[in-house]
């Protein structure tokens, strides 16, 4: 498609920005973009998103939820819907990593998916908007020895723990013993044992296996601290 110069004399300012349809931006994007309503029904997807999910040509996606899509991601619909609600409740939105079979070739790969609340003119949240970017695991490969379909969150599953405790719990969820946790966090074994004891007391448990079971129950097996991604993952268009 050739670009027209007809809009060259249009003054770009706050007022004119308010008149630019958001879909016009997404339509010209080469990465997947989508919009959902407050019940996670799909309102819009650009062509890149249709190809990304390998949807049949002419497939009517409007009004459908994730579980109604003919794509492997449908098995994660409940988790994806929970992330939609979290995005609506936060001005910062949410960030997830979804690993599944994407593109027309159906290749298994992880994709970074930020979601943002969508507002009407009165400031009411009416849904979510999201885009997806492929990323490569570098230093985190030790935590994903066997790549498999999954949804990973960068948002804390709950507010039970402080940052130091979350670090301990994260490495515990990788089935590391106390020595392995200490090495990865560059802490003494005594410090790790002390923090583990604090976690045990907080949860009313007394073993690493019980801590792992708690983590599974409350979604910590799908949580990655953002600082690890910042130091070990390259994001690219």
Name a few traits of the molecule.
single chain; 237 residues; Beta-Lactamase; Arc Repressor Mutant, subunit A; eight-stranded antiparallel beta sheet; disordered C terminus
Quick rundown:
Helix content is 34%, strand content 21%. The protein is of the alpha+beta class and 237 residues long. A hairpin with a 4-residue loop joins strand 1 and strand 2.
Question: What does the model show?
Answer:
- The chain is an alpha+beta fold.
- The protein folds into two domains: 17-153, PAS domain (Beta-Lactamase, 2-Layer Sandwich); 163-218, Orthogonal Bundle (Arc Repressor Mutant, subunit A), CATH 1.10.10.10.
- 34% of the residues lie in helices and 21% in strands.
- The chain has nine helices and eight strands.
- It has helices spanning 14-17, 22-27, 47-52, 77-89, 163-173, 178-185, 189-203, 208-217, 226-232, and strands spanning 33-37, 42-45, 94-102, 107-119, 125-131, 133-137, 150-153, 233-235.
- Strands 1, 2, 3, 4, 5, 6, 7 and 8 form an eight-stranded antiparallel β-sheet that branches.
- A hairpin with a 4-residue loop joins strand 3 (94-102) and strand 4.
- Helix 5 crosses helix 6 and helix 6 crosses helix 7.
- It is elongated, with a radius of gyration of 21 Å.
- The protein starts with 13 loop residues before the first helix and ends with a strand.
- This is HTH luxR-type domain-containing protein.
- InterPro entries: PAS-like_dom_sf (IPR035965), PAS_4 (IPR013656), Sig_transdc_resp-reg_C-effctor (IPR016032), Tscrpt_reg_LuxR_C (IPR000792), WH-like_DNA-bd_sf (IPR036388).
């Amino acid at each position: 498609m050739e670009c027209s110069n007809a809009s060259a004399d249009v003054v770009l300012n706050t007022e004119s920005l308010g008149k630019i349809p958001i879909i016009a931006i997404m339509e010209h994007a080469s990465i997947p973009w989508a919009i959902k309503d407050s019940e996670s029904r799909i309102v819009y997807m650009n062509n890149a998103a249709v190809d990304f999910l390998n949807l049949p040509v002419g497939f009517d996606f409007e009004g459908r939820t994730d579980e109604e899509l003919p794509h492997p991601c449908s098995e994660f619909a409940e988790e994806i819907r929970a992330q939609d609600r979290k995005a609506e409740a936060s001005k910062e939105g949410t960030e997830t990593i979804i690993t599944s079979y994407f593109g027309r070739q159906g290749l298994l790969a992880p994709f970074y998916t930020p979601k943002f609340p969508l507002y009407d003119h009165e400031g009411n949240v009416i849904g979510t908007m999201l885009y997806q970017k492929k990323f490569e695991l570098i230093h985190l490969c030790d935590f994903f020895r066997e790549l498999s379909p999954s949804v990973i969150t960068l948002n804390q599953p709950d507010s039970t723990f402080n940052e130091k405790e979350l670090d301990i719990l994260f490495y515990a969820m990788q089935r590391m013993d106390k020595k392995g946790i200490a090495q990865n966090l560059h802490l003494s074994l005594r410090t790790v044992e002390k923090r583990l004891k604090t976690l045990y007391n907080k949860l009313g448990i007394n073993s690493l296996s019980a801590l792992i079971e708690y983590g599974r129950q409350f979604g910590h097996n799908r949580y990655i601290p953002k600082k690890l991604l910042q130091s070990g993952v390259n994001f690219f268009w």
